[in-house]
Write a structure and sequence with these properties.
The protein is α/β, with parallel strands linked by helices and 188 residues long. 37% of the residues are buried. It has helices spanning 3-29, 60-74, 111-119, 139-151, 168-179, 182-186; strands at residues 38-40, 47-53, 77-83, 97-105, 108-109, 126-133, 155-163. Strand 6, helix 4 and strand 7 form a beta-alpha-beta unit. Helix 2 runs parallel beside helix 5. 43% of the residues lie in helices and 24% in strands. Strands 1, 2, 3, 4, 5, 6 and 7 form a 7-stranded mixed sheet that branches. The longest helix is centred in the N-terminal third of the chain and has 27 residues, at 3-29. It folds into 2 domains: 1-30; 38-186, 3-Layer(aba) Sandwich (Rossmann fold), CATH 3.40.50.360. The protein binds flavin mononucleotide (FMN). Flavin mononucleotide (FMN) binds at residues 25-26, 29, 56-58, 60-61, 103-107, 132-136, 138, 164.
């Protein structure tokens, strides 16, 4: 078989691989993930935080959510972790603070996160917006997310972004510090 033909076949296989990856990965990335609500530090006395997050395809977004919870537990908060779905808590009366965490997909927050934000009323409570991303700094995605939080009557308190795939330990310790941040306590 000629070299030209071999290269041609390799290109075709690569294109098919790319198309099928896109056709598989995109729908999976936009799916709803239903898991039981998980409470961290149930005997905490500082207050109660609701963390609504999309776990992503890798373990990075969940890792950031858990590190945040660890940091908040170190300041004696109670933390309820919920993967975003139609089963996520949609009333926030029992919470002092809410965290919305989403991977950036196609330059925007994940679809189910946006659906959730149209169904909840944050009663002017403080909200922390967190994005995980893989390419350029997600400025537009964060503007998109904070405006959705405002539309849901949330008070945008803090925003943070974490880059997937590089120096993960630093990203995780920064997420821990965010959870342990005194300004969360000062905000309630
Ligand atoms: C389908 C898909 C689309 C993505 N789109 C973007 C994007 O527009 N901008 C960006 O910075 N990262 C993008 N990423 C990277 C993710 O935001 C990054 O990997 C992440 O935050 C971790 O999510 P993951 O566990 O699903 O990879 C995309 C990832 C996937 C799977």
């Amino acid at each position: 078989m000629s070299k030209k033909k071999k290269v041609g076949i390799a290109c075709v296989i690569a294109i098919i691989g790319l198309i099928s990856a896109v056709l598989i990965i995109i729908p999976i990335s936009q799916r709803e993930v239903i898991t039981p609500l998980e409470t961290v530090n149930a005997s905490g006395t500082t207050g109660r935080i609701l963390v609504i997050y999309h776990p992503g395809l890798s373990s990075f977004p969940s890792g950031i959510a858990r590190k945040f919870a660890e940091g908040a537990a170190s300041k004696n908060w109670i933390i309820d972790l919920s993967t975003v779905s139609h089963e996520s808590p949609s009333t926030v009366t029992m919470y002092n603070l809410i965290v919305i965490l989403s991977p950036v997909y196609g330059g925007k927050p994940q679809t189910v996160i946006s659906t959730y934000l149209t169904s909840v009323d944050f009663q002017s409570k403080p909200v922390v917006a967190i994005l995980t991303y893989g390419m350029a700094d997600p400025v537009d995605a964060m503007t998109n997310l904070t405006s959705q939080i405002t539309a849901a009557h949330g008070t945008n308190l803090l925003q943070a972004t974490y880059l997937a795939g590089v120096i993960t330990t630093e990203q995780f310790s920064s997420a821990y510090q965010l959870g342990a941040n005194q300004s969360l306590i000062d905000a309630i």
